[in-house]
Amino acid sequence: MTARLTTIILAIAAASLTTAQAIPTQSQDQPPSAKAPAPMPPQPTGIAATVDGVQISVADVADRAFQERSRHTTQELIDNILVDHAAKKAGIVVTDADVAEATSQIAKKIAPQTMEEGLKEHDLTPAVFEDVRRHEIELDRLALIGVDPVKMVHVRQICINYGQTRPESAAAALVAKIQTQLKSGTTFEDVAKQYDESPASQPNAGDAGIVYPGSQLGPVYNTAALALTTPGQITPEPIKTDIGYCLIQLISSTDKHPATEDPLYDAAVKQWQQQQANMRVYHVLMDLRAKAKIQNWYPETPTSP
After folding, report:
1. What is the model's pTM?
2. Start-end of H helices in 23-95
């Protein structure tokens, strides 16, 4: 559980796509097969495979798998019980719909690979994956207990780059020119369409989306954006970032936004909550382990007798 299965699935999908792009097709670089492989005969009872007549039994496979995975699997099952007990005590209920929605989000992220392909590569059945995902959701919700909501703002920006594109002094001079245009009455949106150099916001007339504490735009940018209080308000001075100067305008905030922006804020809240959960789940799990009475004869870190 400490190594998040969904992260592993996403990594597998990315690696698989890269590998698939690198493997030549038969028609390009490989000679055609002489003949199609013979169909598999019925599986003998208790046999997993044969190699030149030598049998590998299912029992041998199970024994090897137990030796290699028993410690990790035992700890995972212990953690599942701990999380189930804590979730029940906290009144946390994860529904089938919750699991289905989470699985759907993962399926979108790993496309064009399918969930079936991703699970197969990781030797997982849908039932096992859903069980793991259910416990991950429980643990995420436990990690969010006591975490208060934060202020979020929807902003527009005009960012002027310096470095490779122009000297810093030239960028500062251009920002001063832009400020003059804004003071003369030209709308922020129109100026952003003309001058904004951020690849993320320029196609959207400077719309930079939702900003909150810890968002990827950086602490200096976040602090300046979150200090704005009135829709239409613009940062009095440009914000200096690693790549340029930015002017920021407030469009709306968590407590002052139209209903049409609800989906935008809902998505940002989910993203922020996932970030917070990811930072806390390990400590929550360690705390649950420390408080429980556990007897584990297959610990992940073997102890001396």
Report:
1. 0.75
2. 26-29, 58-90
Q: Which sequence spans correspond to the domains of the chain?
A: 1-16+68-149+258-300, 153-253
User: What is the SS3 assignment for 75?
Assistant: helix
d(C-alpha 175, C-alpha 161), whole Å: 10
Output the CATH code of domain 153-253.
3.10.50.40
Q: What is the DSSP string of 189-231?
A: HHHHHHH---TTTGGGTTEEEEE-TT-TT-HHHHHHHHT--ST
Q: Can the peptide bond before residue 112 be classed as cis, meaning omega within 30 degrees of 0? A: yes
Owner of token pair 């073997």 = 302
Tens-digit pLDDT profile for residues 140-161: 999 999 999 999 999 999 999 9
Residue type, 18: T
pLDDT in tens, 203-262: 999 999 999 998 888 899 999 999 999 999 999 999 998 779 999 999 999 999 999 999
CA distance 80 to 99: 16
